[in-house]
Design goal:
Shape: globular
Structural class: alpha/beta
Low-confidence stretches: none
CATH topology: Rossmann fold
Distance between the termini: 12 Å
Number of strands: 10
Mean pLDDT: 95
CATH class: Alpha Beta
Order of helices and strands: EHEHEEHEHEEHEHEHEH
Oligomer: single chain
Bound molecules: 2-amino-2-deoxy-6-O-phosphono-alpha-D-glucopyranose
Largest sheet: 7 strands, parallel
CATH architecture: 3-Layer(aba) Sandwich
């Protein structure tokens, strides 16, 4: 794993955007995996800026959402499809028809998860952008998720619901279920970029990088992926730096 510790948020966004830009230029038909969350916001803002000011184009890119809440109305501002449209897709020239997400309003959700997983396998995601949960989750693969899991419906832990409550009017509004790409699905992507910001992520990052590879810590599976870049701010990286990571 390559570990980058950025000295501030602008540098973190620039390092992450450099990686996305290099990938978009290297692949004739790029396929991106997109995460939501606070950690990826600086990256999306920087990609939007590069689109506006430096003509970075997403016209040839297809993108797949990493996860999605179950139980929100189609127009809900926190539905991840709406978040990604607002924060990235509409800020750049990504064709709306090229933004893929699981249809969480489908009548047969399990069949929809299987369909979504098949379309990801066919498309082959070249660069997967990921955050990490305080409890070491990846996407909505909570602790205990099988390393070979595929896209499926999951129940959210109390920790994750509490962490995400800041985006909702009241804590009880946070959905209890979600669709998530599986850990096995994520492991099938060509290159994984993990972004973590803030000291609340330091312990999870340190365990993911240096701890045992165990299902109790979903992000630890990344130690077995052939190509991972971890981009941290100094706070998220503090424990990992102590264990010998470098910028
Ligand atoms: C959320 C999302 C993940 C995200 C992670 C970190 O629950 N489902 O996809 O990567 O938790 O979120 P944040 O960056 O806001 O801390």
């Amino acid at each position: 794993m390559e570990v980058v510790v950025a000295s501030n948020t602008d540098e973190l966004a620039a390092r992450a955007a450099d990686l996305v830009e290099a990938y978009l230029h290297s692949a004739p038909s790029p396929v991106l995996g997109l995460a939501t969350g606070a950690s990826v916001q600086p990256l999306y803002r920087e990609l939007a800026r590069r689109h506006r000011e430096e003509s970075l184009s997403f016209a040839a890119t297809r993108a797949f959402l990493l996860d999605e809440y179950v139980g929100l109305d189609p127009g809900h501002p926190q539905l991840y499809r709406n978040v990604i449209r607002r924060d990235l897709a509409r800020q750049v020239d990504l064709d709306p028809a090229h933004l893929h997400s699981p249809d969480v309003h489908a009548s047969d959700l399990d069949e929809e998860c299987a369909r979504y997983n098949r379309s990801i396998s066919r498309a082959r995601i070249g660069l997967q952008i990921l955050g990490i949960g305080r409890n070491g989750h990846l996407a909505f693969n909570e602790p205990g998720s099988a390393f070979d899991s595929r896209t499926r419906v999951v129940s959210l832990t109390a920790t994750t619901r509490a962490d995400n409550a800041r985006y909702f009017a009241k804590p009880d509004d946070v959905p209890r279920r979600a669709v998530t790409q599986g850990l096995g699905t994520i492991m099938g992507t060509g290159h994984v970029m993990v972004i973590a910001l803030g000291s609340s992520k330091a312990a999870a990052v340190e365990s993911a990088l240096h701890g045992p590879v165990i299902e109790a810590l979903p992000a630890s599976i990344l130690q077995t992926h052939p190509r991972v870049t971890v981009i941290l701010d100094t706070h998220a990286g503090e424990a990992a730096i102590d264990s010998g990571a470098h910028g």
